[in-house]
Amino acid sequence: MANIFAKKYTREKIQNYTGSLRQIGGITRSQLSEGPGKGVEIATLRTGSGFDLTLLMDRGMDISTASYRGVPLNWSSPSGDAHPNRFDPHGLGWLRTFPGGLLVTCGLRQTGSPCEDEGEALGLHGRYTSLPAERISHTEGWEGDDYVMRISGEMREAVIFGENLVLRREYRAILGEPRITLTDTVTNEGSSPSPHMILYHCNFGFPLLSPGTELSTPHAQIEPRNPDLEDPEGPLRFSDPISGYQERVYYHLMEPNAEGYVSVRLKNPSIDGGLTFTLEYRHDQLPHFTQWKMMGKRDYVCGLEPGNARVEGRAKEREAGRLVTLQPGETRRYDLQFSVHP
Description:
The protein is mainly beta. It has a single domain, classed as Beta-galactosidase, Chain A, domain 5 (Distorted Sandwich). 4% of the residues lie in helices and 47% in strands. The protein contains two helices and 24 strands. It has helices at residues 11-17, 314-320; strands at residues 2-3, 8-9, 26-31, 41-46, 51-56, 62-68, 71-72, 104-108, 115-117, 120-122, 134-143, 146-158, 164-174, 179-188, 194-204, 214-216, 219-224, 248-254, 261-268, 275-282, 288-296, 299-307, 324-326, 331-341. It has an eight-stranded antiparallel β-sheet, with no helix packed on it. Strands 8, 15, 17, 18, 21, 22 and 23 form a seven-stranded antiparallel β-sheet that branches. A five-stranded antiparallel β-sheet has the order 3-4-5-6-7, with no helix packed on it. Strand 9 and strand 10 form a beta hairpin.
């Protein structure tokens, strides 16, 4: 049964109350008409629970803005949802079109710091965010008393005589539920083995993120990337914006639950009596977790980032013996869930 704002309805009752389910939720597609994002195709997903998201179809089907009952959840950068033709793959050029947003996927062959690996120059966080979706499909329909919404597509990172990696992505939501599931599969469709790195860069901002917000992770240990940087609040608490703040990065060594999942929660007790965002994923798929803590004025953000590697670049992953390699025809799957709890 659909739970529409704390009241349950059968399929028949909802249909009796509505001329079209679009008045409650659904998926619509459109296009940005001005600014650096002019021409970018977007999809708006309304879950019917107050949890609404905007997907950037020309930016790897990542999630731009997200809100719950009017409360913004994500951090947005001043770069905006820039068109992928503005993407700069060199060095730190990735930052010039980093939109922030609820989700920016990094990869598929490099995550983290710029580096050179086996003679290949690699920019910050790889090329994935510049890949437009193709074979896009979206469906909505009843499955028993559940109204299920899906949108899918595929992104390809390929070059002649080189890599040919394909990520196939599907988002799934059920009308009335304040959650969305994300399923990715990455396949090496090339003829040679390929390095494979992926990071789900989830970015949270004001008002969900503010002094008093608490981060909860099932960690056995938290390791600072730069132990020489003092952090009075520690990684799990947050301050007011600070002028000249230097970003902190932490690695959380997670302990999954009995089903193999990790649940990370960001809670603000002062919003509407308390609002919690939960990110859940499989630990065997994404064994590393990075936290980006940036308390700067106008750059006030917390990044929660499960991945299959750390964020120090491919050369260091190879050196440490952690680098994942996909053989021709091999596929890896990643399952994540985003949910909001009032």
